[in-house]
Specification:
It contains five helices and no strands. 8% of the residues are buried. The protein has one domain. Helix 2 packs across helix 5. With 106 residues, the protein is mainly α.
Length: 106
């Protein structure tokens, strides 16, 4: 029984590692993603420094995030699928976040 579980786990691992990472159809461009992430981090910073009133209320932050997505004309599912895709490619996500970081430096 243990051997069957081990073999099943091994086959699953091999298959998942060999599958090609296919981008979703509605993938945001890198430029769009950088802009959205930058805006999200601005809201987070404002919230942490009490610039946004009642920042302890997560509903306000979520409303801000929703507003950012609407401003950029992006759906939550489109953003989520883009993030899921880039999470599977850590090197790319690192490059994107380096560009987000650069936007904070004058």
């Amino acid at each position: 029984m243990g051997r069957i579980i081990y073999i099943t786990f091994l086959i699953t691992l091999i298959i998942s590692c060999t599958q090609e990472n296919i981008p979703p159809k509605n993938l945001l461009s890198r430029k769009q993603l950088i802009e959205v992430l930058y805006d999200f981090h601005l809201v987070d910073a404002a919230s942490k420094h009490s610039i946004i009133a009642n920042n302890r209320n997560n509903k306000i932050k979520h409303a801000q995030y929703k507003g950012i997505l609407e401003h950029h004309k992006i759906s939550k599912s489109q953003f989520d699928s883009t993030i899921d895709y880039y999470i599977s490619i850590p090197e790319e996500l690192k490059v994107i976040y380096e560009k987000v970081e650069q936007k904070f430096i004058p």
